[in-house]
Automatic annotation (TrEMBL):
Keyword annotations from UniProtKB, A to Z: Nucleotide-binding, Transferase
Name of encoding gene: FPGT
InterPro entries the record matches: Fucose-1-phosphate_GuaTrfase, GDP_fucose_pyrophosphorylase, Trimer_LpxA-like_sf
One annotated GO molecular function: fucose-1-phosphate guanylyltransferase activity
UniProt KW Protein biosynthesis keyword: no
Gene3D superfamilies associated with the record: Hexapeptide repeat proteins
Start and end residues of each GDP-fucose pyrophosphorylase domain: 114-545
Keyword Transferase tagged: yes
Source organism: Mandrillus leucophaeus (Drill)
One record GO biological process: GDP-L-fucose salvage
Designated name of the protein: Fucose-1-phosphate guanylyltransferase
């Protein structure tokens, strides 16, 4: 599970003598969950919670989906009341990155509230991507990913709000910036709290391996005099490195030497990347900016007008901070997906704007950072990882109708808000969410089934990904189900039709799959940009009139590839995943989930 290990950062420090760090981490997490549960559906008092919770969206379709789901959550009293919940959509045109989305959000706040937001405590959650590495979150958003936790079930939004429950009480007016697909857990002393009350920027930091540091932000902290690390430390930062090489970490004195930590200082868990005798670094997660800094960025954005390049809130904002920041990073585009002509110039302008602004760091030595943004991470953390299961209290069956799943020390299956016949089978390592499965359905190992309805006899091969979407096409309700392998790379693209043999579907050459489905290789096979051909843009998924037919048909095309037997798709209207998201019918998908919810509630005598 090396790829999954890179998604987890964990560290630890001396906890109270009576509790090992893993126990104090679990208890601290459970306390936050209980506190948030008490606030769900209740009117919060001024200063008790966030004044504003804002979520970013990539386009108007996503904005509509997010607003619809927020509205439903508030109706069902799943969120604290008396809070302003907003969705801020990026402007149409070029991608602007989460840094650009941050600037747009500041502008929207100014337009909505004028000078009033000077006194607000604001949570800004970036959720504007299309989740190509975890496509069951593509239609309704990463921040609305369901978790095997709670009643009614938690989604990532509720978990974020729960884990940050203590922040607003000790925060000056300003904005906390976070991402939708990660989880930060931490434990500090019983009478300690995290303060966001210093001018400039304040970021959380977690002890991590050097390898983890190469894919995240790394803090170069000023020297620390204490001989022993504590769970909570307030440190000043000399400079911030974004995805540095290990060589650069040593070059800029970002690496901490072992010797201070002892064996009991580290948070527990089945995966321990950070060894007690290894060098380590402090890596980033979320950050806060005070209102003065936010106003400075807003004035800058209003001066430049329109962005035409991607700005990274972490790489482009934080690297400009601290007394050791230099302009050299602005010319390093090795970590940039799309390099535009204006990128270097824009980075330099941001650097000169923010230079001299302080970067304060809150070091959380008994903390963990989990990233759940890929199919591999999703399956691992929900079915195999005992650490996260223990810390959050994750369940194998959450708000579902299904016989008990035998617990074991290795992996189990995970069922979330679904109705499964007692005679169907779900193999260990698989996740089923928002679905109905009949008696003759068998699901192989390491599968993801989302939003599906399977009544007829069906066998889902191991490592299958199946996700159904409702569509509105020519004012008619239709359905389409994306089906492929959980390890398929939907983002990998080629520039010409002659190169599509380099793409793989369920581990098989894509060209061979097209032969199995009797599809010809033409430009019409792909939607969107004809020089960026990928599984994401391949028109291979049938459109059907019913949800069950949609799932059955897509499973036939999947099994045809698996069994090397012909299954012609010529008679079907075919869509790409990209097009499914354009045609998606958010209201119908939410209605389907609501129907499952009501049926489970009735059968469980909960209403």
């Amino acid at each position: 599970m090396r790829a999954v290990q890179r998604g987890l950062r964990e560290g630890g420090a001396m906890a109270a003598a009576r509790d090992p760090p893993e126990v104090s981490l679990r208890e601290a997490t459970q306390r936050k969950l209980r506190r948030f549960s008490e606030l769900r559906g209740k009117l919060v008092a001024p200063g008790e919670f966030w004044d504003i919770v804002a979520i970013t969206a990539a386009d108007e379709k996503q904005e509509l989906a997010y607003n619809h789901q927020l509205s439903e959550k508030l109706k069902r009293k799943e969120l604290p009341l008396g809070v302003q919940y907003h969705v801020f959509v990026d402007p149409a045109g070029a991608k602007i990155g989460n840094g650009g989305s941050t600037l747009c959000a500041l502008q929207r706040l100014e337009k909505l509230y004028g000078d009033k937001w000077n006194s607000f405590i604001i949570l800004l959650i970036h959720s504007g991507g299309y989740s190509q590495r975890l496509p069951n979150a593509s239609a309704l958003g990463k921040i609305f990913t369901a978790l095997p936790l709670g009643n009614p079930i938690y989604q990532m939004l509720e978990l974020k709000l729960a884990m940050y429950i203590d922040f607003p009480l000790h925060m000056n007016p300003g904005i906390l910036v976070t991402c939708a697909d990660d989880i930060e857990l931490y434990s500090i002393g019983e009478f300690e709290f995290i303060r966001f009350d210093k001018p400039g920027f304040t970021a959380l930091a977690h002890p991590s391996t050097l390898t983890i540091g190469t894919t995240h932000g790394v803090f170069v902290l000023d020297p620390f005099d204490d001989l022993k690390h504590r769970d909570l430390e307030y440190r000043s930062c000399h400079r911030f490195l974004h995805k540095p090489s290990i060589e650069k970490m040593y070059q800029f004195n970002a690496v901490c030497r072992p010797g201070i930590f002892c064996q009991q200082d580290f948070a527990g868990g089945d995966i321990t990347d950070l060894k007690v005798d290894s060098d380590y670094v402090y890596t980033d997660s979320l950050f806060y900016m005070d209102h003065k800094s936010a106003k400075m960025l807003l004035a800058f954005y209003e001066k430049i007008g329109t962005l035409s390049c991607e700005i990274d809130a972490y790489g482009d904002f934080l690297q400009a901070l601290g007394p050791g920041a230099t302009v050299e990073y602005t010319r390093n585009t090795s970590n940039v997906v799309k390099e535009g002509s204006e990128l270097v110039e824009m980075r330099q302008r941001i650097f000169h704007l923010l230079k001299g602004t302080s970067l304060n760091v809150v070091v959380l030595n008994n903390s963990k950072f989990y990233h759940i943004g890929t199919t591999e991470e999703y399956l691992f953390y929900f079915t195999s990882d005992n650490s996260l299961k223990s810390e959050l209290g994750l369940q194998s069956i959450t708000f579902s109708i299904f016989p008990d799943i035998p617990e074991c020390s290795c992996k189990t299956s995970c069922i979330i808000q679904s109705i499964l016949d007692s005679r169907c089978s779900v193999a260990p390592g698989s996740v089923v969410e928002y679905s109905r499965l009949g008696p003759d359905v068998s699901v192989g190992e390491n599968c993801i089934i989302s939003g599906s309805y399977i009544l007829t006899k069906a066998a889902l091969p191991a490592h299958s990904f199946v996700c159904s979407l409702s569509l509105k096409m020519n004012r008619c309700l239709k359905y389409s189900t994306m089906a492929f392998g959980v390890q398929d790379n939907l983002k990998k693209s080629v520039k010409t039709l002659s190169d599509i043999k380099l793409l793989q579907f369920f581990g098989v050459c894509f060209l061979s799959c097209l032969d199995v489905w009797n599809l010809k290789v033409t430009e019409e096979l792909f939607s969107g940009n004809k020089t960026c051909l990928s599984l994401w843009t391949a028109r291979i998924f049938p459109v059907c009139s019913s949800l069950s037919d949609s799932v059955t048909t897509s499973l036939k095309m999947l099994n045809a590839v698996k069994n090397k037997s012909a299954f012609s798709l010529n008679s079907y209207k075919l869509l790409s995943i990209e097009e499914m998201l354009i045609y998606k019918d958010v209201e119908d998908m939410i209605t389907y989930r609501e129907q499952i919810f009501l049926e489970i509630s009735l059968k469980s005598n909960l209403i």
